Structure formats: C-alpha cells, structure tokens
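Box 3.1 — From sequence to structure: Methyltransferase
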Amino acid sequence: MQRKFKDFDITVAMKRDDFLRSKGTGQRNLLLSRAVWEFASDLEHLDSIQQEFVDGSVRPLIRQEWEASGADYSDNRQLLIQGQQVMQDWEHPLMRKLADNATAGGGDLLEVGFGMGISATYVQEAGVASHTIIEINHEVAKRFATWRGKWPDRDIRLELGGWQDVIGRLGKFDAILYDTYPTNEREFVETLGPKSPFLAANFVEPAAAHLRPGGIFSYYTNEIDSLSRSHQRILLRHFSSFKVELVTGLQPPADCNYWWASTMAAVTAYK
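Predicted structure (token representation):
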C-alpha cells in the first residue's frame, strides 16, 4: 500500500500474506488506510507546530543511587537531581490542572512524587480527606517535612521509597495523582523513549488496582495534542472511561531538556 502526500510518501510493505487478512479485502484495506492516514495526520501536525519547540540541551545519564542523591532546588525555580531537571516552575498550570482533576471528589488521595511540592500545594488548597505522598529521594523528603508544617492539623503523610516498593501496603484510595521522574537510565528509556506510548504507561495497572470503585487517576503524558490509539487501548483495559484536556500556554525555558512544547495532554481516568 502506498499513499502520497504533499511533503512525504508512506509505504506499507506486508511481510506476511495473512497480515490483517480479514474475511474481505475491503476490510483489510479500510484498516490499513485508516492507520496510514492517522500516521500522516500526526506527521503533518507535528511539522506545523515544531517551530514553537524550545531547543533543549544535553541530558546527563542517570546513575543508580537516585534515593541518596542530593536535591538542588536552585533558588526555588527548579529541582535538580544528579544534574537532571526533575521539575521547573513553569509547570504550575499543569500541576494545577492535575490537582483540580484529582481532588474533584475529595476523599483519600495518593500522590506519587513530591518534587517541588507544586501539585501537593494545589491538592491542599482544594482540600481532601487525607493526602498520602510517595517520594523516593531522601533530600526531597526533607523538603516535604518543611512543606508539611504549613498544615499541621491535616492528615498528610509521606511514604519514603519507590512506588513499586511501597504501594502494596497502602490500601486503596479515591484518587491518585501521578507525577514522577525516572530514577535510573533504564526506566528513563522505557518510560520516555520512542517505544513508550506515554509517560505513565507502567503505572496504569497499579493505579487501577489501588483505586476504589469510581476512583480518579490523574496524570500528564508526553503527548502534545491528543492521545495515541495505543494509549487509549491501555487505559480502556483498566478503566471504564477517561477524559483528555489540553493544557496550553506552557513556557518551558530554552534550556529545559525534559519538555519542549507549549502544550501537554492531561488525562483523568475513571475506574
């Protein structure tokens, strides 16, 4: 199958005679045509917005000792761990959206990743019955202790460790807000590399398992304007429905090396 477009051509060469060989040739052609045209649409859209991207910079490799690595808060403008830009203050609109979505029903909320405490602050401003935060880095946990003092009478607690190690003992929640950064190079490649359908892909199933019926899973993706089909398939295996909102007007600085566009898709999935 060949399709010609203004700026490129797409060729699909089947290696198996029975690849997508349904009961009718028309069915096969329809499925292939839809997939090709969707891919072409993605390429054309990315080309139309790529001039707005920031340049980014070279990212250092992540060593294994993430838990004990120092946390540099760099004048409260950004969080650096092992030279990695983990969070920057331009994320406020995005963190507010995630927090608003996660706190819509009140109840018991689990947040994965504390970072600079941006989303955690918005959670407390909205109000929840309880607020549990998982954080792996010891220096960031010290920052949490200071932040925690703003609300001495509220049910806020920290679980120190990787989410894979601690979530099994935490029970179930009414909402989960996921905002974390890879803690080693392998995880970075698996969650942010070209083969990863979206940032939180490895957490979708655990999130569903630790939500009560009707619970909310709030997270952002590494997608710019929509959700891919593979992303939607993963969600619908574990959640009954979801909504997608585009957070616009983001302003990552030119030296930001973990994000490059002025938009990001925020997802709310419902169990």
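Summary of the box: The first helix runs from residue 25 to 49.
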